[in-house]
Design a protein that fits this description.
- With about 325 residues, the protein is of the alpha/beta class.
- The chain is built from 11 helices and 12 strands.
- The strands form 4 sheets. The protein has a 5-stranded parallel sheet, sandwiched between helices.
- Strand 9 and strand 10 form a beta hairpin.
- The chain starts with a helix and ends with a helix.
Length: about 325
């Protein structure tokens, strides 16, 4: 009996691991079945990019998700395997991510000959919006939002760094800030160019210039929500015709970090559907490094800005002031 109780903790751990793996396999099978059904019905390639906070390992340590190079590899492979004349339909639910993979995904979508549609059930911010610009049409559900694509430098808005460096006297500005401003100005120019490239053929040339400048110039905070009405005013080709089956597919990707749901409701037509909503789908990814941020160039830590000012040995004007001479 003592041996049994001694081995009981190990047995319980093994039982927990087995039950969790079994549940994951069942949920994965349900997801594959739903994907197959929707693709067959819509006669398209459906690709979902869904980022949430996920538990990592048995202890459930939170792991933040965002657009990374692993996502780019998977999406590019899926697009390569899609026949040229087959429509691409993307489901985006993301806070954004790194510039490089977001641009890779967006350009791959733009290059696909078939029709491209992006569905945003809830939000596609920053790099997610950049990807959406590559589509022929962006479909937003009620209250779904896009966001600005202004680059972030070391966790700070690039446009703000450039403005501060331009307004402060050069002798009162440390070298680190000047370097950030230099990189920030280049990043803004690059993002504007890429956005215009992605919008070419979808909107007029003047509209592409206007949209790219407004989204990347830093006129809003980086988390500013751009709903359907404002997206329409900007000139984006947006729609509110969100298909029901797309929303149903999105429901298979709940946040698996919380063990107890904060929001509950009961559908009168189906009580069983509520029980099915507790299913969790485990996604994969990696932990962002310290100092990194959604849609960020470089790993700099903004805390390093404090106390780094050094006496300037040489008074040299930054590049954005040289043109005044």
């Amino acid at each position: 009996m003592e041996a049994f109780f001694g081995a009981l903790p190990i047995l319980l751990i093994l039982l927990f691991i087995f039950s969790r793996n079994l549940a994951n396999q069942q949920r994965h099978a349900e997801l594959v079945k739903k994907f197959s059904k929707i693709q067959k019905k819509r006669k398209s390639r459906v690709i979902a990019i869904v980022h949430r906070q996920e538990p990592m390992g048995l202890l459930g340590i939170p792991m933040l998700r965002y657009i990374d190079l692993n996502d780019a590899e998977d999406v590019l492979e899926a697009i390569r395997k899609t026949p040229p004349n087959k429509p691409l339909e993307f489901i985006l639910h993301t806070p954004g991510g790194l510039v490089l993979p977001a641009v890779q995904i967006a350009r791959a979508i733009k290059a696909h000959p078939g029709k491209k549609t992006v569905f945003v059930p809830h939000y596609a911010m920053s790099g997610g919006t950049l990807i959406a610009l590559a589509a022929d049409e962006v479909v937003l559900s009620d209250h779904a939002v896009l966001g600005p694509i202004d680059p972030q430098i070391g966790g700070l808005p690039a446009a703000s760094v450039v403005r501060v460096a331009g307004e402060k006297p050069i002798q009162n500005t440390d070298d680190y800030t000047l370097v950030l401003a230099d990189v920030g100005a280049m990043a803004i120019t690059q993002l504007q160019k890429i956005a215009r490239e992605l919008l070419t053929g979808t909107v007029s040339e003047n509209a592409a210039i206007s949209i790219s400048e407004q989204l990347s110039s830093g006129r809003w905070t980086h988390d500013y929500p751009i709903a359907y009405g404002e997206a329409k005013e900007l000139g984006l080709n947006v729609s509110r015709e969100m298909p029901k089956d797309i929303m149903e597919l999105m429901s298979l990707f709940p946040d698996s970090l919380r063990r107890t749901k904060s929001v509950r409701y009961l559908e009168e037509e189906s009580v069983e559907h509520h029980a099915a909503a507790d299913h969790r789908v485990t996604l994969t990814g990696y932990q962002p490094q310290p100092g990194s941020r959604s849609f960020s160039y470089g790993p700099w830590n903004p805390k390093e800005l404090k106390g780094r000012a050094k006496p300037h040995e040489e008074k040299r004007k930054p590049f954005w002031r040289r043109s005044e001479d």
